Each structure stands twice: as C-alpha cells, then as structure tokens.
Amino acid sequence: MMKIKVGSIKLLNSKRFFVSSMSWLIVACASLLFAPKDLLAFLSLDQLVHQYGQFIGLGLIMGVAYFLSQIFAFIVDEAIVYLRQKRTVETIDAKVKLLDPAERALLREFFLQGQTILTLPQNELAVKNLVNTSILEMLGNERHYAIQGPTAEYKISMQARNYLNRDVLRLPAGEPSAEEMSHLIKTRPHFINGLIQSRKHAV
C-alpha cells in the first residue's frame, strides 16, 4: 500500500512538472514570436528569433496542441461519466418497476433493520440481480461460511435511493399494525435468520 502511494505521488509530481514545463514553453515561445522587434533588439534576442524562429514556432504549436489535447480528453471523460450515470439511472428506473417479491423483500430489510449496510450472501440470486442493476453496491468485508457460502457487506446505491420509497417496497405508510408486521416478517428473505445466527456465533 505504501509503495502504491509513493508511486502515485511520484507520478503526480512528474505530471505537474510536465504541465508546468509546457506552460512555460508556451509563454516563452509566444513572447519571442509576438514581442515588439524593438524590445527583442534591446534584449539582444532578435538574432535568436531570426535564426531559430521555426523551432520557436514549433515549440509554441506543440505546447498549444498539448493543452488542447488535455481539454479534449477532459471533455471526453466527462461525457463518458455522464453517459454512464444516465445509463445507470435508466437501468435502476427500469428494474425498480419490475422488482420480484424476493428482491423487494431484500430491499425492505434495510428499512426494517434500520441499517444502511447489511451483510448478505453473495450467491443469492436476488443479491446478484440488484448488484447487476446498480441498486446494491458491494462494500467488501467478505466472509466464507461452510453452510451459507460467501457473504459480503452491501448498501443501497445513492442513485437507487431516489427510486425506493414505501410504495415501491410495499411498506405501511405509518407505524405498521400487528397484522402488517406479521406479514412483513413472513415475507422476509429466507436467509436473514441464518445470517443473524451466524453473526451471533461469530461474536
């Protein structure tokens, strides 16, 4: 980890040095090419510009081209990020409208347990479907159990939170009645109790 950080710092410093060098190249070349002739003669630079004018012009073109390429790359990167986010939102919106009972029950657990992060089985089909459609995000902390298989910590993605409400999850509008609570408990995912027992044994 330390080696990666040191490498990243060196790369960042090298990039800063290169950008700074290109900036000074543009300033120097532009100054020599567009400065008044009297000023160049006063500074004894007129002969230098006369002899190496083509190289100075080439240096200016290279510097300007570099920064134009950086601007173009930035615009392309921003466009890619925007399109990915748009596609993610569209995928979430479509999936929320087609949640099956197992997926809806799984999402309800976050609200029923009052938790933003839950430990869930990675091989569960509902978990896989919600991850693939960007509704759930895996945070890590993977563990392996002989009976239940691998688990990990998950949270509801920021984009999906705007689409998940009580109506979508079919939760009571207010405090659930005894009958409503009984129904919610009966429809909980089958693996929840097993995970709770596993956490108790782990403690």
Q: What structural class do you assign from the helix and strand content? A: mainly alpha
Please report the distance between the alpha carbons of the first and last residues.
Answer: 30 Å
Beta-strand residue percentage:
5-15%
Shape: rod-shaped
Instruction: Give the quaternary arrangement of the chains.
Output: single chain
Q: What integer value in Å does the Rg equal?
A: 30 Å
Poorly predicted runs are: 199-203
- Give the count of helical stretches: 9
Number of strand elements: 3
- What about the largest sheet? 3 strands, antiparallel
Mean pLDDT: 83
Q: Order of strands across the widest beta sheet?
A: 1-3-2
Helix content: 55-70%
* SSE pattern, N- to C-terminal: HHHHEHEEHHHH
Summarize the structure.
This protein has helices at residues 2-34, 37-42, 46-96, 101-112, 125-132, 158-161, 166-169, 178-186, 192-202, and strands spanning 117-121, 136-145, 149-156.
Structural commentary:
By secondary structure, this protein is mainly alpha-helical. The radius of gyration is 30 Å and the shape is rod-shaped. Helix 1 (2-34) crosses helix 3. It has a three-stranded antiparallel sheet with strand order 1-3-2. The two termini are 30 Å apart. The chain has helices at 2-34, 37-42, 46-96, 101-112, 125-132, 158-161, 166-169, 178-186, 192-202, and strands at 117-121, 136-145, 149-156.
